[in-house]
Design goal:
The protein is an alpha/beta fold. The chain contains ten helices and eleven strands. InterPro entries: P2CMN_synthase_LarB, PurE_dom.
């Protein structure tokens, strides 16, 4: 159905308002000059907010995209802002009265008018402090999608006794999914998934050196894991892990609250 057919069907009572809203969301694309087409209704359609990948984008173009997107959407993520541009974007946001949420050790930003809670819960763990930036990207995505995050960083297998109190807390909090970010050999994801009956998302980070450097060993280890219930995203893909885990959590909550 094209746009006219959707509106006519709604007017004639052939489809509901909810159905029309869903169908109309497929047409919501914001064109910005000749360099960008923004999916402003992605969150309505998929539950995942628009994510702007800032790396290699010109600063002026990025500013135009941010302004156009934040007008139409209640939450927008801007990932991997160039370090030289990060403070400029913060100043630009303040000047334009845009509400932002930041993360530790990351240049990813969340622009959100108001964070709404769905009731979903996601645990986010890192093997080391060097992995925190990737975990914070995941946290920002999860919070943009309405999930509460229970985070615990630097609990890798070099001191495996640190893991158990954290796992106990995540179970008691009844989290719906767990994200594990780990570099080096990436073993923490396998350990965590062997201890819980909760979906686990492994994120190999590019922390590491020598043979298997830049996350290659961590990725291979997670993919070869013999523990079930572990899914794996690409190296340093905190954004993708956050989107997947929050989708799982939100769907779980919807199932629990259905009559």
């Amino acid at each position: 159905m094209d746009l006219t057919e959707i509106l006519e069907s709604l007017d004639l009572g052939k489809i509901s308002i909810t159905k029309a809203k869903k169908m109309l969301s497929l047409y919501a694309v914001e064109k910005i000059e000749d360099f960008a087409k923004i999916d402003t209704s992605r969150k309505l359609r998929r539950g995942i907010p628009e994510v702007i990948f800032a790396e290699k984008k010109e600063l002026d173009d990025l500013k135009k995209i941010i302004l156009a997107t934040t007008i139409k959407s209640d939450s927008v993520l801007v990932s991997r802002i160039n370090k030289d541009d990060y403070k400029k974007i913060l100043s630009f946001s303040k000047k334009n009265k845009l509400k932002i949420h930041t993360g530790k050790n990351t240049t990813t930003l969340l622009f959100s008018k108001k964070l709404h809670s769905t009731g979903g819960k996601v645990g986010i763990l890192t093997a080391g402090t060097s992995d925190v930036g990737i975990a914070e990207e995941a946290r920002l995505v999860c919070e943009a999608m309405g999930c509460k995050c229970i985070c615990s960083y630097d609990i890798g297998i070099a001191g495996i006794h640190r893991v158990f109190p954290v796992i106990k807390k995540l179970i008691s909090e009844e989290v719906d999914a767990i994200i594990v970010v780990a570099g080096m050999e990436g073993a923490l994801a396998s350990v965590v998934s062997s201890l819980v009956d909760i979906p686990v998302v492994g994120v190999p980070s590019s922390v590491g050196y020598g043979y298997g450097e830049k996350g290659i060993a961590a990725l291979a280890s997670m993919l070869q894991s013999c523990t079930l219930g572990l899914t794996v995203v690409n190296i340093d893909n905190g954004i993708g892990a956050g989107a997947f885990a929050a989708n799982v959590a939100n769907r779980s909550i919807r199932k629990k609250t259905m009559p």
